[in-house]
Known about the structure:
The chain is an alpha/beta fold. It has 2 domains: 3-200, Aspartate Aminotransferase, domain 2, CATH 3.40.640; 210-297, Aspartate Aminotransferase, domain 1 (Alpha-Beta Complex), CATH 3.90.1150. It has 6 helices and 13 strands. The strands form 3 sheets. A 7-stranded mixed sheet has the order 1-7-6-5-4-2-3. A 4-stranded antiparallel sheet has the order 10-11-13-12. The protein has a two-stranded antiparallel sheet with strand order 8-9. A hairpin with a 7-residue loop joins strand 10 and strand 11.
Amino acid sequence: xxxxxxxxxxxxxxxxxxxxxxxxxxxxxxxxxxxxxxxxxxxxxxxxxxxxxxxxxxxxxxxxxxxxxxxxxxxxxxxxxxxxxxxxxxxxxxxxxxxxxxxxxxxxxxxxxxxxxxxxxxxxxxxxxxxxxxxxxxxxxxxxxxxxxxxxxxxxxxxxxxxxxxxxxxxxxxxxxxxxxxxxxxxxxxxxxxxxxxxxxxxxxxxxxxxxxxxxxxxxxxxxxxxxxxxxxxxxxxxxxxxxxxxxxxxxxxxxxxxxxxxxxxxxxxxxxxxxxxxxxxxxxxxxxxxxxxxxxxxxxx
Length: 302
């Protein structure tokens, strides 16, 4: 992407703002399409924003047409699957819709192909530099093609030089309507996550390109190791053909009850889903001992 703003509240609001931005760009088109499995929380935020804009949300792209403003796709999707999205670019070109790619784990881009075919790329960046802090705050990122820069929400910062020739950074673009005529504003997100954005920038700078790739690879290797071990257990089925550091398994027992029993053993399990499914995330902070404890406990529970 050619332009990135000075951050948003979180990945969910970044996605919702991207959808609203597509409605502004495609003025007479009011259909928002979701392809594949989007994070349910993101979807709820998207619905709230789209209701305010009186836009229609469609859960597939079967009726993609000239009235469609955008197609939203998660990369990887909610269950951890990684899809080749080039076919969506072609469908968007045919209908005139914008392609919005949502990346809920920015570290995945250390390994995955960059979604350079998208018109807008948004997502969550708090996993780099921002602590959990009992559930927040988060850090949404928002980037797009330069031709849409006048419609981008939030603030844009640019590099310049002062009268002494020293490098400096200034606020380049910020719609005054956000502060004065709120009914005319492109976005009513009037402040950014400055502290979180700074923490992210410092962490990312210290890692560098090679460090980010190594960290992403470490996440993926640990996830593969745990997925392999889990799939060997009786009563456990791995549902992914591919993934980054999150994957979905299915038990022959209630996943919520399994989580309760794991918690009794002082182990926080994955995200329990319907149909006995569980979403497992593995990061660089997970040790071999942690994974072994999970395997041993599941053998006893199952």
